[in-house]
């Protein structure tokens, strides 16, 4: 059954994420496809629901972000786990001078995902409050 194969792929990713310290569980629903709920236990508000489905232009299966963007091939769950660990990593606050600080990601996790926004500003330009 096709859905069983998708669940198998999600379970492989679940195992990879568990080794990286993220909490991941396959969720099976009565009315929709199974998905993988991934949570950072150090910051529970950082969570992602991952699905598995073939790409529209082929029969190859991929992991998909909750917003519908293709994440990674299912034949490399370790690569998908690296991307998820990066996205679910909390931002660090670093002070720069006396005028305030900027939010930054861990410098060791650069270069993964051009879809990620840049550092969040801690001060608004004049005229914004």
From TrEMBL:
Residues 92-129 are annotated as: Disordered. This is Uncharacterized protein. It comes from the Bacteria.
